[in-house]
Write a structure and sequence with these properties.
- The protein is an alpha/beta fold.
- Helix content is about 30%, strand content about 25%.
- It is built from 20 helices and 32 strands.
- A 7-stranded mixed β-sheet has the order 7-6-19-18-20-21-22, sandwiched between helices. It has a 5-stranded parallel β-sheet with strand order 9-8-10-13-14, sandwiched between helices.
- Helix 4 (about 80-90) packs across helix 5, helix 10 (about 280-295) crosses helix 11 and helix 13 packs across helix 15.
- The longest helix is centred in the first third of the chain and has 17 residues, at about 115-130.
- The radius of gyration is 24 Å and the shape is globular.
- The model has no long low-confidence stretch (mean pLDDT about 95).
- Bound molecules: 5'-O-[(S)-butoxy(hydroxy)phosphoryl]adenosine.
């Protein structure tokens, strides 16, 4: 597409409001707002029409079916995510188009470019190897891989044969990996020797080794990436390249029922234990395909770069499935944004002529700090659409992104969604708009939302409350929590009953129907775009032998959005010290990973408690935020608050 085209223009009356230009509208898949009304009148019909763009081995008998706590899409239909991501394009004569562009972190190493035909061959080889290992339909396969092509290949190979992947973020600890492998009962794990971080090889395989004892994992496939020397366990471990070398490059895709499980992805809930979010095949494919196409206005010559990690849902849907279902090129970048310097991301945009760039507000805030001179060094005129996801974006970051990356030409599509929703649910479309800092936009066509008060009353426009999804539930919404149907009901449907999926986000809707997300209303934090429960960090810290009690709360942070702050009571005789703090950080690293490290650890004598002995996190939260503490007189130990004020330097 033409370079340097203006895709947006300012609203003459409203400051910082932007609308698509005529040119943008002409090139957009969707520019007539009628799409919203039509979909609202018949959401099932809307999604049915969308489903027809994909390949189905057998068409569905019924579009949607719902019973309390249960819903199905494209009932009786047979399809396959990998077939739709790869074979479909090759059959349409587009096998030579670029599917995957891999950019390694070290700038002196060669990258890799795979066409759709080449990617299918790689996927098929691994798929055949997995089958030979005895992996079949419904079997779970763990994936613990860095950002290398094999991460996408592995996910595609697993769903190709009807197995179920569970990807674990490669920066998660051995213990986090073990918990997830145990919970999903994976028999095979695909991992790598290591990867590159800030120019140095980092070993990964030793983590996998530590994680696997006591799990059901029987086979480990190891990709050679960093060349790190790693011990291989005879009979269990096999090198990826040895395994796939002699495998045939053809492997027919398994015909999956629309409601067959495609993958499990663990995410943080309000308790310490991560929950296995279950996504099925047909509905997920349809919503991933449609949202990626419409949100970013994808056409065949687009180069789509989503900077998330494949370990998160954003990576699943907008690095792997979404772009590939649309037949465009997807960029996989191995490294960090600051290596070899702060211009790395923009150098990659220039090098690969990226047209769609999708990242998180926390990343943008980091770039704001580093300065606009870095993007200014590179040609970013290929960019057409910018995206953001993961947390509410502040105005300063939005405007910086708009000006310095988008050249005031590109819309910013602020997409609201969750691991549970599988694909975006609220955002402005590039051909419709508006694009406004801190406002996500309208619900995607065919998605119904409402704002409820605590009692379940629907609130009028303009009033803040709780964001819920209404039936028909979006096709990609989770179907359950692995192995825990009760928790599924309790987490999402206990507040308002089976007719409302509770997002646990606060929001309000303006007069034009645009949704503004205000943030989580539960004990889930958003740390540099990573979702984390305060309870998880508490559980990790309690593992330390000298800790008797812990309370963790979140505090706003200029760059990371939020950071965990820990209040610790030590066991009798234990002395607070900086060494102990370092040990505690190590404990968190070992149990979760470095993303969960508390920004501050306070050793205290007591924490505020209710009369029934529950920790009043609300008071701690206000303390660290310097906000009014409210009524503390009813606490069992109101005196504790004075000590805490001194500890945190509270002057509020
Ligand atoms: C939570 C879900 C699925 C994308 C990655 C995060 C917050 C997500 C936005 C946005 C404001 C957002 C919500 C949500 N969130 N996108 N555009 N504006 N908040 O997935 O880790 O499952 O976290 O991220 O609080 O509930 P996740």
């Amino acid at each position: 597409m033409a370079k340097g085209v203006k895709w947006v223009q300012p609203d003459p009356k409203r400051k910082n409001w932007y609308w698509p230009t005529q040119e943008a509208k002409e090139r957009a898949w969707i520019s007539d707002p009628e799409v919203y009304e039509k979909a609202e009148a018949d959401p099932e019909g809307f999604w049915e029409e969308r489903a027809q763009e994909l390949h189905w081995f057998k068409k569905w008998d019924k579009v949607y079916e719902e019973a309390p706590y249960e819903f199905k899409w494209f009932v009786g239909g047979k399809t396959n995510l990998s077939y739709n991501s790869l074979d479909r394009h090759i059959e349409a004569g587009n096998g030579d188009r670029v599917a995957l562009i891999w950019e390694p972190e070290p700038t002196d190493q060669p990258g890799r470019v795979l066409t759709y035909s080449e990617l299918l061959e790689e996927v098929s080889r691994l798929a055949n190897a997995l089958k030979e290992m005895g992996v079949g339909k419904g079997d779970r396969v763990g994936i613990y891989l860095p950002m290398i092509p094999e991460a996408v290949i592995a996910m595609q190979a697993v769903v190709r044969i009807g197995a179920v992947h569970s990807v674990v973020f490669s920066a998660f600890s051995a213990e986090a990996l073990r918990d997830r492998m145990l919970d999903c009962g994976a028999k095979v794990l695909i991992t790598a020797d290591g990867y590159y971080r800030r120019g140095k090889p980092i070993a990964l395989k030793p983590n996998a080794d530590k994680a696997l004892s006591g799990t059901q994992v029987e086979k480990v496939i190891v990709v050679q990436r960093s060349g790190s020397e790693v011990p291989m366990s005879m009979g269990r471990d096999v090198w990826y390249h040895d395994l796939v070398k002699d495998q045939p490059t053809e492997c027919p895709a398994e015909e999956m029922d629309s409601e067959d499980l495609a993958f499990i992805l663990y995410t943080s809930g309000t308790t310490g234990k991560p929950k296995g979010v279950m996504h099925t095949t047909g509905g997920y494919a349809v919503q991933a395909h449609t949202t990626c196409k419409w949100d970013f206005n994808l056409h065949e010559d687009d180069v789509h770069w989503c900077t998330a990690d494949v370990g998160w849902i954003t990576g699943h849907t907008y690095i792997n499935y979404g772009p590939l279902l649309n037949g465009v090129a997807t960029v996989v970048y191995e490294g960090t944004p600051d290596h070899p310097d702060y211009g790395r991301m923009w150098q990659v945009v220039e090098k690969h002529k990226v047209t769609v760039f999708y990242t998180a507000p926390t990343a943008i805030r980091m770039h704001v700090k580093w300065g606009e001179e870095w993007p200014a060094k590179y040609d970013l005129s290929t960019l057409r659409v910018l995206g953001t996801v993961g947390e509410p974006i502040n105005e300063e970051a939005w405007l910086w992104y708009f000006k310095n990356i988008g050249g005031e030409r590109c819309p910013i599509v602020d997409t609201w969604w969750q691991t549970e929703t599988g694909a975006t649910c609220v955002q402005s479309l590039p051909g419709i708009g508006p694009f406004v800092p801190t406002v996500a936009g309208r619900p995607f066509p065919g998605v119904r939302v409402a704002i409820l008060d605590a009692g379940g009353q629907e609130l009028p426009r303009g009033e803040g409350g709780y964001l819920v999804l209404k039936p028909p539930f979006p096709p990609a919404l989770l179907r359950g929590l692995y192995g825990d149907p009760e928790k599924y009901k309790g987490t999402y449907f206990s507040e308002y009953g089976p007719g409302f999926y509770f997002t646990r986000d606060g929001a309000r809707i303006d007069e034009l129907g645009n949704v503004r997300i205000t943030g989580r209303v539960d004990d889930v934090m958003n740390v540099a775009g990573h979702r984390l429960a305060t309870a998880e960090v508490e559980d990790a810290l309690t593992q330390h032998a000298l800790v008797s009690e812990v309370a963790v709360v979140s505090k706003p942070d200029e760059v990371k959005g939020e950071v965990p702050i820990a209040f610790l009571l030590l066991k009798k005789g234990a002395q607070p010290s900086d060494d102990l703090k370092r040990e505690l950080i190590k404990t968190v690293d070992a149990h979760i990973g470095p993303t969960a490290r508390p920004a501050e650890i306070y050793f205290v004598e007591d924490v505020p408690k209710t009369r029934s002995g529950k920790i009043m996190r609300r008071v701690l939260k206000s303390l660290v935020r310097g906000e009014p503490l409210g009524d503390v007189a009813t606490l069992r130990n109101p005196d504790s608050v004075e000590d805490l004020k001194r500890a945190v330097g509270y002057t509020g």
